[in-house]
UniProtKB/TrEMBL annotation:
Residues 6-238 form the ABC transporter domain. This is Branched-chain amino acid transport system ATP-binding protein. Belongs to the ABC transporter superfamily. Signal peptide: none annotated. GO terms for molecular function: ATP binding. Gene3D superfamilies: P-loop containing nucleotide triphosphate hydrolases. Keywords: Amino-acid transport, ATP-binding, Nucleotide-binding, Transport. The keyword Nucleotidyltransferase does not apply. Pfam families: ABC_tran.
Amino acid sequence: MSAALLSTHGLVAHYGDFQALYGIDFEIAAGEVVALIGANGAGKSTLLKSIMGLLSVAPGMVQLDGRPVGGAKPHRMVANGVAIVPEGRRLFVGMSVIDNLRVAIDHAGKSAAVGWTLERLFALFPLLKEKQAVPVESLSGGQQQMVAIGRALLSQPRVLLCDEISLGLAPKVVKEIYQALPSICETGTAIVLVEQDVGLARSSSNRLYCMLEGHVSLTGRSADVSREAIGEAYFGGAHAVA
Ligand SMILES: Nc1ncnc2c1ncn2[C@@H]1O[C@H](COP(=O)(O)OP(=O)(O)OP(=O)(O)O)[C@@H](O)[C@H]1O
Ligand SMILES: [Mg+2]
């Protein structure tokens, strides 16, 4: 793999007295898609939140271009070129699609090379152009997910963190969203994909990390790791993935 764009080094994270992550070493290069899989409570969302500055971590535990950025506030991380599509989307209810997107444009990072514009976003998800004047709450779950992804892209991320973007969506719209990922990576944006569907995670990513109880239990090239290895890493025993 070429030099890491974003990396974590012995990253630990806590919720009060509870330790959720135990020394996570993770890395992703420009243009890569890396899947994060693991059972409920394994620590996937916590890793994304720690990278995004939503949880307190030591500076050297998160590095961007080899520079320590751990513990920077979320708005600083956006300015640094990291964006998150959070679990549950968190759109601005009562606002139209276009106004949700404009918020991101107003708060965009300075990674001009990424070059996301409304025009390019509408080419990626034509439905957003059609529905731009519509309040977000009247959209379907899949359409709302497109707005959430669009909002993240318009902040010009070099690293896009996606937390379970397929959750609860119809297979057709999941396919539509996942088909958009290669165009997102085209300009060098890296995608970290938290995904419960192990098959989808493997087929959509270059590499994967499996997490188990706050540790990385397996990492490798997605095409190379066997179902048996994933089953063991996922459950911590000799189980197969269904
Ligand atoms: N706000 C919180 N306060 C206290 N503990 C938390 C909090 N959020 C998560 N945890 C705990 O941290 C651990 C990791 O949770 P996390 O949400 O990162 O898991 P996950 O892999 O994203 O799971 P899921 O697949 O259910 O989304 C779990 O034990 C969870 O109960
Ligand atoms: Mg989660």
